[in-house]
Protein 1
Amino acid sequence: MLAAALLTVAMATQPPEPEAPSLRLGIRGVAEQWNEPALASVYQAGAPIGAVSIGLPLAGSLWLDVEVGYRRLNSADDEELSFHLIPASVLAQWSFGHGSAQPFIAAGPTITAFQEQYAATAEGLGSIGGARLAGELRLGLRVDTGLVQPRRAPAPNPVKDVGIELYVARRQAGPIGGRTGFDLGAWRAALGLSLAL
Amino acid sequence: MDETDTDVDTDTDVDTDTDTELGTDVDTDADTVGFDDTGLSSTSASQLAEEPGGFRCDATDTSPGLLALVVVLMAVLSWRRTAC
């Protein structure tokens, strides 16, 4: 009887289990090193890219990570030459481990849109653009900064945690072979900040 | 003396090559893309890569990626609908 009463009291005083986040928003700085030698010749071999991300829980430790970035490159030799790059990815991401630092692995399809602008030709053409599909494999770590303390109802904190994310990844397109065009495969490394809501 | 004359001819050939690089190549670029007012060529990355532009959709490289993208999106939409 006494034991049951003590157990009841202990359960009543135990802090509630933190509510699982239902959304994760992030901003990331992604350093990319591209495969395409033409980009290195005219612009740069790689560059940092600003990106935003949205994470949606799928099941348990499995999340969907959607990331979109943007970068504009300018030619050092010709001010009329510029290149716009928009890499986007939809990756299934699995976190493992417990505690404040959680490693994760992610994989999925990506699409990288591009547009190059140059001086108009005699035909009036001033740009060329397109997109490339590829796949990406990502390994990373998310660290909970501990900046947010969970609050009990009726005024729970809408922000569940603030995390620092870092990852390395490989974006790989199929072999180009004898065909022409940009190979937008890349090595990627990112550092970001995320809010779990 | 004969040998000296031959060397002079060789130098002339080198000059001819130099003219070709600075003249003919520049004109070719100017006819296509990226010619500025200074007269210097500025080859674009699209030219170098012979980029055809557009959404290249070859069965060999993009269809698996496109299929994976569609499958992932459909799975997420289905799951979200079920959860609601």
Protein 2
Amino acid sequence: MKKEELNFSKNNQFNLTMLPGKFAKAMRTCKIWQFFRFMVINIKMLIVVRKSH
Amino acid sequence: MARLIVMGGGVSGHTTATFAKKWLGNDHEVVVVTPNAQWNWIPSNIWVGVGQMQKKDVVFPLAPIYEKAGIDYRQALATEIHPNGKEGSDKPYIVIQSTKEGKAGKTEELEYDYLVNATGPKLNFDATPGLGNGKGQMGTNTVSVCTADHAVHANLELQQVFEKARKAKENGTGERQKILVGTGHGMCTCQGAAFEYIFNIEHEAKKAGVRDMLDIKWISNEAFLGDFGMGGLHMKVGGYAVSSKLFAESLYAERNVEWIIGAHTSKVEEGKIEYELLDGTKHEEEFDFAMLIPPFAGVGFKAYDKDGSDMTDVLFAPNGFMKVDAKYDAGAYENWKASDWPRTYQNPTFDNIFAAGIAFAPPHLISKPMSSPNGTPINPTPPRTGMPAGIIGKAVAHSVCDMIKNGKENAHLHEASMAEMGAACVASAGKGILDGTAAAMTVYPVVPDFEKYPGTGRDTDYTFGEIGLAGHWIKHILHHMFIYKAKLKPGWTLIPE
């Protein structure tokens, strides 16, 4: 049994979407990966901010 | 010496006033009229509402900041605009009513050369029976996180629900608590705040060990999850360009949060709401705790001509927001264009009046208009908060300063169309320096331009979103950064809006 897939069966709304697996969820709070994403997101946001002013 | 009056001291008004004062110096006068004694970083009210911040963390007194900046601060409510002056004087003026302790209710006339309306919205609780108290304030059936005080109250109520859930778990009674979060009317905006609140509640419930005793449900006027009043957005992920609907639904499903969408909340009672869906059917939903965002309206200014006749409809749209240089006669959805959106925010009748932030009347919705077979409109209204509000405020300050310094004829009006401007948005999904998450998103442009970007209406190279701890770090940094900027501390102008 994959715990992260349990919610698919809870109702039809949930069944028709996508759920993150164990790896995707772990990466969300993995400090090293998130530090990298922090840099990337900041750069992307700065570009949008620059384009908007 | 010219006098600029800025009505409102929120994100947009504060930006306009502080930049205008910086650029105009002491040669001209900048006056801020706001009924509030404190500035509030509204995005962090969410964390006050779940007990992760206190009110003092999200507010600070305005008076010392404006004193330092040389801005004339009037703690008062602006009630009337007289753009043509009065009998015997052509000088335009506004009427203000003090809200300061000891002077409350005292009225005064303030003459102006330039006027910026940046009041933000009126929280129109009374638009839904039972959501308000009938006197324009929030009622007792639900809570809100729209102001810092509302958020403090929301947290007190939430902790009681958590306590009941904890006791039920300990006693083994199995009594579950129902939590309902979303929009309290079919024409609400600001779904993002409710989105953040529901996931912060879910996160805190897990931490408190009571998540298994809670049924958490979302109710919204969006036609699909992830609309956010912007008609949704498309992001590039894994080589695909996909709709925000898929990501929003995924998040709700993952956190076991059911949803009701396309809903107009028509009545609120103690522990129960009535709502109508887009298919015209009517339903009820019970709750033990509900946070429902009220719809927004203009603050209810009246405008009078020189002879005292009412000319409110000249300055304001029927919803109470101020008319600016937008195309208000675009007609049906099929005819809507990005160019309908205002560029300079100058009132078309009076060139010395501008509106910034939520106070300007948008030309139409961004999301596709929807209504039930009963004729009830059910669609989110356009968001104009946060980054766009700040950028518009700064552009308006630029224009007014140019008009004052160079004269109206030679002035360059600065532009900040929401159809050419992006927005960075960080929506918290749980607070915690090591276990928090937030959805970090950028959208470019805010208003889709299907002529420039056929297909999604937006540039998918600059429209993205992802959820993770990094987003939470950014949200936390933004909290401190924008409060630092609003306090006008050294280098404040370097921090972008």
